Amino acid sequence: MRIFGMLDSGNCYKPRLLLALTGQDFVHVEQSTRDGSTRAPGFLARNPIGQCPLLELDDGRFLAESGAILHYLAAGTAYLPTERYAHAAMLQWMFFEQNQHEPAIAVRRAISVYPERQAVATPERMGQLMERGLAVLAVMERVLAQQDFIAGPVPTIADIALYPYTKDAPEGGFDLGAFHHVMQWLGRIESLPGYRPKDWTPAA
Q1: What pTM was computed for the model?
Q2: Rounded to whole angstroms, how far apart are CA atoms 101 and 169?
Q3: CATH H superfamily, domain 2-74
Q4: Which of 10, 160, 188, 199 has the most CB atoms in a 10 Å sphere around its CB?
């Protein structure tokens, strides 16, 4: 398998982290949305959306969207619950990540980190993103005060989906020190066998 993605991207880190945790072999291909290469005809032929990450399977098929890639790669592993309710609860938090968490925390980080996005960093917008992001972290804090992982007692791909941009939230100005249970949860993820940091890729 090959994964096209940016080492600096949280979305692209998600499948790499899951593959490390589950011991699956893959090749990382650096591909950036910042240099226009994902809009090139060759890449658009693989993924009409023109975004990373993109998974290329051994049979030549392609799969986009980090959540879909996680779901595919987790099949047959402990990170994908098979019991009906547990599976739906996992999906609930994956939808939360895409609809609530990423649009606030990841967006504020991107505006803070990438110079080309500074033009939209108005005080009003940054304030709104901070308010929304803190509310998201408060939700996670309440849940993680009751259980070790976001969807229940064991880690699932919902945790993998939420981990990268929560970990990087301080780069967007968020102080995680006020979220004790979220910090403990980050530590539990980082203690999982096979864990690798964001800049990791498998040896060639």
Answers
A1: 0.94
A2: 10
A3: Glutaredoxin (3.40.30.10)
A4: 160
DSSP for 37-94?
GGGSHHHHHH-TT--S-EEE-TTS-EEESHHHHHHHHHTTSTTS--SHHHHHHHHHHH
- Domain 84-190 falls in which CATH fold? Glutathione S-transferase Yfyf (Class Pi); Chain A, domain 2 (1.20.1050)
Backbone angles phi, psi at 27, to 5 degrees: -120, 135
Tokens of 158: 């919902």
Amino acid at 122: T
Q: 59-96 pLDDT, tens per residue? A: 999 999 999 999 999 999 999 999 999 999 999 999 99
Tokens of 138: 């408060």
